[in-house]
Structures are given as structure tokens and as C-alpha cells.
Design goal:
The chain is α+β, with helices and mostly antiparallel strands and about 80 residues long. The protein is built from five helices and two strands. The relative contact order is 0.25.
């Protein structure tokens, strides 16, 4: 539920690149990378939902760092960056 709430905060449950909207394949992406480190720093007791809660409580930071991508666009982005 927190994941969906964060997606709504970021502009809706759809990929910002292609518009795909099947929730099963949508992912929260760190725009400029660094997602693993960010999750490690913010994670509390191993729960990913805490990271979502953090960004819901800090919407300005969420808009600067995060976007919603479908799995395909996210993997294409990773491929092109590496």
C-alpha cells in the first residue's frame, strides 16, 4: 500500500517514459542512480516499506530523487547507463 501511495505522490501509477500502467510491472526508480545505497541508509529493520514511508513524509525529496518506471524502461535505462 505504501508503494502505491508513493507512486501516486510521484504523479500516478504509470511509467514516466512509456505510460505503461500495469502495477505488477511498475518500479520506483532513483533518477540519478544510487538506489541500493539509499535503501540501505533508510531501511529500518530490513523493511522496504520504511523507505516508501520516508519519501511519503518528504515529498520534495521524493520528487527530486524518484520516478516511476515500468520494468522494461528501468532495465533499458540501466543498460544505457552501464
Amino acid at each position: 500500500q505504501k508503494r502505491m501511495e508513493l507512486m501516486q505522490l510521484l504523479g500516478g501509477a504509470k511509467c514516466v517514459k512509456c505510460g505503461f500502467s500495469d502495477i505488477r510491472a511498475l518500479q520506483i526508480d532513483h533518477i540519478h542512480g544510487g538506489g541500493k545505497m539509499d535503501f540501505r541508509e533508510k531501511r529500518n529493520s530490513g523493511h522496504t516499506s520504511y523507505v516508501y514511508f520516508y519519501y511519503i513524509q518528504h515529498p520534495h525529496e521524493a520528487h527530486q530523487k524518484l520516478q516511476v518506471l515500468c520494468a522494461n524502461c528501468n532495465w533499458i535505462k540501466r543498460y544505457e547507463k552501464n
